[in-house]
Amino acid sequence: MTSEHASDEARQAPPGPQRIAQLCAEALLAGDQASRNLGMRMEDVKPGAARLRMTVRLDMVNGHGICHGGIVFALADSAFAVACNTYNAVTVAAAASIDFLAPVRVHDELTAEARELWRSKRSGIYEIVVSNQRGEQVALFRGRSHSTGGQIVPDPQG
Q1: Model's pTM, two decimal places?
Q2: What pLDDT is attached to residue 94?
């Protein structure tokens, strides 16, 4: 087999789990106006995992001079959404909770790291750790997902 033939076969091969996760994340975030308007950026995605980043702006601060808890929740929730939709099955949140561990200030750079703890055919449990630019954990989010059926992207397996 020539290398030219091998590269043709590689282009025609069905995408693996990592490529499917990437395609799903890109499609999901392309339509996510809320995450985009809050300045969230995807840094990494893998099957069952995602990392998003966001800088806290002045318009995200509450009356106590700290970041509004709903903004921190939104970042964690978006990382959760990306992580649980990496298998090309439309998946939504069925439940979520958050513990705020430390105050978040304007200009803080937050990172939400989502990882899958458990997954069955239609449900999953995910943990999302939100940290600041110093690596200090500022929130811990846990979400339960539910797959509703349907695909995020046309069947990448062909």
Answers
A1: 0.90
A2: 98
